[in-house]
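Pilot study result, target chain (253 residues):
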Amino acid sequence: MIEFDRRIKSLRKSRGITQEQLAGYLEISPQAVSRWETGASCPDISLLPQIAGLFEITVDELLGVNETEKRREIQAVVAETSAMIDRNITEEPIRTLRAALKKYPNNDRLLCTLMYALYAASEDEDFCRAHDAEILSIADRIFDYSADDDCRNEARRLLFRHCCDTGRTAEALKIAGDMPDIEACVQRNMYWVLDGEDRLAHLRERIADDLRELTWAIWAYETHAPLPPEEKREMEELYKTIDRMVKEKFPEE
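Predicted structure:
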């Protein structure tokens, strides 16, 4: 990444504007611009979009970020922290993601993964409520900045679950109204555009996913329904049978 002082000075001079003119546009003092260009300080993060807009570039371009390097770094952070979350490690991935977001403030993948980390850890009710404001703030940032439908839908799903867990039934129902219908999802519709082995592979994946969802529904029903002992045992056996079938016939790669 190019040093910001050299980058801002080069951009300013290429547009033929003075430090005073740049300061006037940003409604700050010329001394602040001078400090940026000497490396004595950096602009507040909230000013970056405005500065980038003036020079008609992205914030990443303003910061001299190499896109390939950026993608590689973000993918590595997401993979590392997601693996930790899956192992029920909570605090370390949250710290790692917060640090990455200082470098890439509105990256939707990092934001979504942090939201998941906070939500996953929120099985501890005290932790959940302590980080409530941050979870809501991340969701707002994703909805404001992300153009990635997958990230937006994942943020909506996590926000829905968080509202359910914190007793906000009305908010949860409102969010549910904006969730995509299952019949409109890609998993339900890709069959029609595929053929041959691709179609068969898709169907195998569909069967495995639907069976896993079924085992979860059986477990939830058996857990919450006031079933007589015999019926409860039947449900437990059904769960075990389907779970065994999935693991044997459709192992996860």
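One observation from the pilot: The chain has three domains: 4-62, 67-180, 186-249. A full batch analysis is planned for the follow-on phase.
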